[in-house]
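Handout, section B. The chain below has 363 residues.
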Amino acid sequence: MEKEFLIKNLLDQSETCGKTSDLYRDMLIIISKSENYLDLMIDIFNKRKFNGAIEICLLLASFFHNLALENKHNEIRGFFKTYSGNYDQTLFNQLKTTLEDIFKKYENEISDWLLEKKLQTNEVARSSVIYPLLLSLNLEKINLFEIGCSAGLLLFPDKYSYKYKKNNEFFEIKNVNLIIETEINDLEKLKNILKNQEKIQITKRIGFDLNPLDINNRENQNLLKSAIWDDKERELRLDKAINIFEKYKNEVYLESLDYTKNLAERISFLSTPDSEIVVFTSVSTYQVDKESHDKLILELEKTAKLTSKKVYFLQFEGKRKDQDLTIELTEEEPFYLSVTIFPEKKETFFAKAHFHGKKLSIL
């Protein structure tokens, strides 16, 4: 990887971060001007496979967050409002000095982190847009499979509480004290879809991931939290979701699997014959290359043949580089929700949505 390419990716990502976090924006700007950090990142990038330069940029940022989370560096912790700290642009030079100090003290640990850790996110708020899509299928008994499941928190869409709002009106589904709020464009249409919650039964909850995360482990819980930008609300939501997972952990099964290989065989083996097969992805495949995505589609076609059943493939994804979409995405809603039914292989677009499920526009 060329240094100029890495710098461009750092600066591009800093703009994205800047929409929600001044701290993360400025951290990445500082890194983009640090020869020490740049040289280390290039060296690591050439030693292991990443899904593009953005992944290593965010993985490095997660190391800084983890230092704060584990209370290993008071100065960096003091910038995170998540831990009652504070940061604004007047502290830019102080942040720069802190990051330089971290490199001197933790160069080997940074290197190990970038070499060994897999950036894992499990934003449970995405359930608020996935759940209506699932209910729109009007199915009853379901084998629910997630591809790219991370810790499997999205396999419990029927266990969370939701509040859908339009102007001064709202509609709630109350299950637990984890309430996810979403702005909706058509409340009446949504209410009709959500009526199906009374008859849906998820008989199996199964997640596939190259590196599924066992969140019974405190270190892994912190790894998930370290991938969150400086946002106290998201961290509290994650804590509540982890507690719910622990309550229902006997209902879920996670397995290490490359979904481009043997997916059909595993779904066929793990499914119960009296339930429909629903496979979903959530912000996990839009950055993969065309060859990998084509292999996924072939595996789903094979699943329908092996099981002699329809396979409902739900996607909450952004536009892939090679993809032609028939709907227009927006800056506020840059992701789409769709269902493709195999073996017919017919895709229907359901909605546009915010990256973290804050907005949902049903089509």
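Note. The chain has twelve helices and eleven strands. Compare this with the example in section A.
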